[in-house]
Amino acid sequence: MDYQTISNDLTISGQISSDDLKQLSERGVKTLIVNRPDGEGPDQPNFEEIKRQAEKHGIAAFYLPVKAGAVTDGEGKEFGLLLNNHPLPAHAYCRTGMRSLTLWALSQSAAGVSFEDINRSAEHTGFDFSGLENRIKHSQSSTEPVPMYDVLVVGGGAAGIAAAASLLIRERDLKIGIIEPADVHYYQPGWTLVGAGIFTPEKTVRPMGGLIPAGAEWIKSAVAQFLPEQNQLLLEGCRPLGYRQLIVAAGIKLDWDAIEGLPDTLGKNGVTSNYRFDLAPYTWDLVQRLKKGKAVFTQPPMPIKCAGAPQKAMYLSADHWLRHNLLKDIDVSFYNAGPVLFGIEDYVPALMEYVQRYNISLNFRHQLVKVNGKEQLAYFKQLGDDAAEQLVEVPFDMLHVCPPQTAPDFIRSSPLVDENGWVDVDKYTLQHVRYPNIWSLGDVMNAPNAKTAAAARMQAPVVAHNLIANLKNSMEMSQYNGYGSCPLTVERGKIILAEFGYGGKLLPSFPKWLIDGTAPSRAAWFLKERMLPEIYWSAMLKGKEWLIEPTIEDLRKIEKVHK
After folding, report:
1. In terms of domains, do 494 and 534 share one?
2. 3-state SS class at 143
């Protein structure tokens, strides 16, 4: 565990795991302050999980969550009160440590400590502290010039890195900055296979630094505020950056707290989710250990990323139980907040064959709202005009949860969003509807496509081409057709390869004789297990646009068609 010593009484770090608490205890830490809000990242234990483990090691844990880059003076004072009123030494953490350091600096300033003394204590940490100087000194302006970029990319996930790589393939001399605080990058589509014992977790993660495209600068920070009227944004620590063009690819937030009791029981009591890196192995552990009882799989209201993932976990689990002659003693149920099994009708008949093979009970318009882990009870709210008011109580031995999902907090509070909190773009050009030098792709924007990695792969060259056209005042623009792909793992060794675009139009990538997407296929399984991970790491993130080169049309013609 890496950490920075601020004083004899305080150390700070980035995200910790439950295993790190033993080391903190051995260092004599008595108080833990958690400054990272739950649900910010896919590898992030919730506060309740950390608190339980901390208490086992004699450490008192406190939750003081703050938004990245939006630390208030009041939160700084609260941080100071925690340090003053609880046993020391203390340890604080957030995603990178910057928010915890900012809170400490503001608490010191409130106590009358000068900026020079604060900076002297913190300068060895390596964090850029310059943005706080004006704030702490209560100055209204800065004499420092604002660093400028041709393109700033917010987010170092699949969409952000792919877009940056596609830009650099086209224009090598662009000055591009990728703003991403995380140290690692995840191949999230692989977690379905981790939860089925096919992939190891290690196969789905790589260091972020090795994936930043050559020619782009990695800005290891988080965005605090968007200032589109000034073509600027603020990073945490109040540091401004300027841009000619901006790409927003900030991903999606998994809102575990939206389900009452869920954060308290994740990773134990038979409650799991393939939507989190550290929990996917627990899914496989539960599948292997369950010999009889009730297995419940849930899906929340849309939108969610990879809408087929809740079903994938269910089919692969049931397939394992069937192969080991256990399924006759296991009741498998699917509770979906939506009204249908899958949104594109062409794929439903083949899926229903597997529902019948595994004897799965389908329950539509049922939304998970509460979990009692100790009693192993799940509670569902019925949806629709004729729904009963009382909650439906469902016992379980295994519960696989797909959490509700929203845009990240710093996006939803920005001027870039629509009424539902998603970045507001033209669904064809992916250009912002109000700010013509802002673009968005991936899970964070509001185009009505499936939120999948395959969609981001198709969107990246569209954004790259259109952004450069905008820089050059060209009328030649590319259009995104809404393509998304959902490889539905219906059994070990077979996949229904759903590929579709806007309006549910089927958009197969292969001839029907090779892969018939409406039927289970071994060829599609080979594609998912063997080829797609390498395509992801070695093609998509490198700007290689195999089978996805954008079509180019005159913008005036496009506008006429859409009118």
Report:
1. yes
2. coil
CATH number, domain at 285?
3.50.50.60
Q: How far apart are CA 369 and CA 379, in angstroms?
A: 6
94 counts as catalytic: no
Exactly one of 94, 238, 306, 402 is catalytic; name it.
Answer: 306
pTM reported for the whole predicted model:
0.80
Candidates 215, 206, 104, 122; CA nearest to 166 is 215
Q: Looking at 136, 171, 201, which one is the last position of a domain?
A: 136
Q: Which residue from 217, 7, 227, 186 is spatially nearest to 100, judged by alpha carbons?
A: 7
Of these residues, 94, 238, 402, 486, which one is catalytic?
486
**DSSP alpha helices (H): ranges in 92-145?**
98-110, 115-122, 130-136
First vs last Cα of the chain: how many Å apart?
57
Q: Does residue 219 sit in the same domain as residue 310? A: no
Helix (H, G, I), strand (E, B) or coil at 358: coil
Please indicate, yes or no, whether residues 349 and 214 belong to a single structural domain of this protein: no
Let me know: does 93 contact 130? Beta carbons within 8 Å: no
Q: Which of 136, 169, 195 is the last residue of a domain?
A: 136
| Domain housing 437 | 148-252+407-562
Residue 464 has phi, psi (to 5 degrees) of -60, -50
- Domain assignment of residue 141, yes or no: no
Strand order in the sheet with 330-336: 271-272, 398-400, 293-299, 330-336, 361-364
Give 360's DSSP letter: P
Q: What is the pLDDT of residues 99-127, one digit of tens each?
A: 899 899 888 888 888 888 888 888 777 77
Say yes or no: 106 and 78 in one domain: yes
CA angle 27, 87, 53 (to 5 degrees): 60
DSSP-derived pairing of the beta strands 90-93 and 176-179: unpaired
306 a catalytic residue: yes
Give the distance from CA 414 to its chain's centroid: 18
Please calculate the CA angle 37-40-44 and round it to the nearest 5 degrees.
90
Q: Is residue 143 part of a domain?
A: no
Q: Write down the H helix ranges in 290-344.
A: 309-323
pLDDT in tens, 459-510: 999 999 999 999 998 888 999 999 999 999 999 999 999 999 999 999 999 9
Same domain for 419 and 505, yes or no, is yes
In this structure, the answer to whether residues 174 and 81 fall within a common structural domain is: no
SS3 for 457?
helix
- Tell me whether residue 510 is in a domain: yes
Residue 81's contacts (CB-CB under 8 Å, 6 or more residues apart) are none
The per-residue DSSP string of 30-91 comes to -EEEE-SPTTSSTT---HHHHHHHHHHTT-EEEE----TT---HHHHHHHHHHHHHS-SSEE
Let me know if residue 222 belongs to a domain.
yes
